[in-house]
């Protein structure tokens, strides 16, 4: 049985070397596929120096489209997706394979711990909130899923699902939910995990949560008929949620402010997607009329 690791990277020169060094402790060079998403820094040079396989997108297509490029180029029986910020712990690779071989298992992820040496506000926020703890994903109120920071699946199932939706955010949930609705099997996690370097800028965190808001609306639209009702602006007022975040993080005021701001960013993204849908529907109605 053959396995490839697929990793999309956009301007990840500063992170890629350390990431690949850790991966190479688990697998050989020929099993790693770096998909360069039209980087403008030295990402490709780092990958080439370390001897891994490199695919290059001519223009920036986004991480999920880049993952699709990677797995469709691969001929391996199993594909493991990861991110440039992640570093596997010893035994991670074997742990994933053992879990994936379990009866009735379709997709395997793992727990991811955040680490930072001299943490900025954004890094302290990640250390406190632990955004990649696997339990939160497996206990999602609609259906469990795992993030593509660590996601292992067979090629057979990838082909059946036709890969990821080519969006900026949220395609990991969509992918895992489609797998379960199709009856491919369960979503589970290996006991041996990874650690990751968090985003260093508060602005980067806020941009990320705005994208989460946009994808949250898209997932609501796609899965409402299956019973999915995500956290929306109607569920709890933005101001109240922000105040709760401030209260919960009051030991670190800067982190508290960022935690409140990321909730607002999510809501803005959600509402922006609703407005975009209404505008598109209006244009379609005028054309049809």
Structural write-up:
This protein is of the alpha/beta class. It has 2 domains: 3-198, Spore Coat Polysaccharide Biosynthesis Protein SpsA, Chain A (Alpha-Beta Complex), CATH 3.90.550.10; 203-288, no CATH class. Helices cover 48% and strands 17% of the residues. It contains 11 helices and 8 strands. The protein has helices at residues 13-23, 43-49, 63-73, 92-100, 121-129, 134-138, 155-161, 171-181, 202-223, 238-248, 253-288; strands spanning 3-9, 32-36, 53-56, 78-82, 86-88, 105-114, 150-154, 186-196. An 8-stranded mixed sheet has the order 3-2-1-4-7-6-8-5, sandwiched between helices. α5 crosses α11 and α9 (202-223) packs across α11. It is globular and about 50 Å long. The protein starts with a strand and ends with a helix. Mean pLDDT is 90; it is low at 232-238.
Provide the descriptors you would attach to this structure in a database record:
single chain; 289 residues; alpha/beta; Spore Coat Polysaccharide Biosynthesis Protein SpsA, Chain A; 2 domains; 8-stranded mixed β-sheet; 48% helix
Brief write-up:
The protein is α/β, with parallel strands linked by helices. It is 48% helix and 17% strand.
């Amino acid at each position: 049985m053959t396995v490839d690791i697929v990793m999309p990277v956009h301007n990840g020169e500063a992170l890629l070397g350390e990431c690949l060094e850790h991966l190479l402790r688990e697998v050989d060079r020929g099993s790693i596929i770096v998909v360069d998403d039209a980087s403008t820094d030295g990402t490709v040079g780092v990958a080439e120096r370390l001897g891994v396989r490199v695919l290059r997108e001519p223009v920036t297509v986004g991480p999920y489209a880049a993952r699709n490029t990677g797995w469709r180029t691969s001929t391996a029986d199993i594909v493991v997706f990861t991110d440039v910020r992640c570093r596997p712990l010893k035994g991670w690779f074997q742990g994933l394979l053992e879990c994936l071989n379990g009866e009735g298992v379709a997709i395997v992820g793992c727990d991811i711990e955040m680490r930072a040496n001299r943490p900025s506000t954004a890094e302290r926020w990640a250390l406190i909130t632990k955004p990649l703890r696997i339990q939160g994903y497996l206990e999602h109120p609609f259906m469990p899923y795992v993030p593509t920071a660590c996601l292992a699946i067979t090629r057979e199932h990838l082909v059946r699902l036709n890969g990821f939706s080519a969006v900026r955010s949220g395609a990991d949930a969509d992918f895992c939910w489609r797998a379960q609705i199709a009856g491919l099997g369960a979503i589970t996690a290996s006991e041996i995990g990874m650690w990751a370097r968090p985003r260093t800028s508060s602005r980067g965190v806020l941009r990320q949560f705005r994208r989460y808001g946009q994808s949250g609306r898209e997932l609501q639209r796609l899965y409402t008929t299956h019973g999915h009702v995500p956290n929306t602006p109607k569920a709890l007022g933005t101001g109240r949620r922000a105040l709760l975040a401030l209260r919960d993080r009051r030991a670190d005021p800067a982190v508290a402010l960022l935690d409140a701001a990321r909730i607002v960013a999510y809501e803005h993204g959600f509402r922006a997607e609703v407005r975009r849908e209404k505008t598109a529907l209006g244009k379609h109605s005028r054309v049809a009329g």
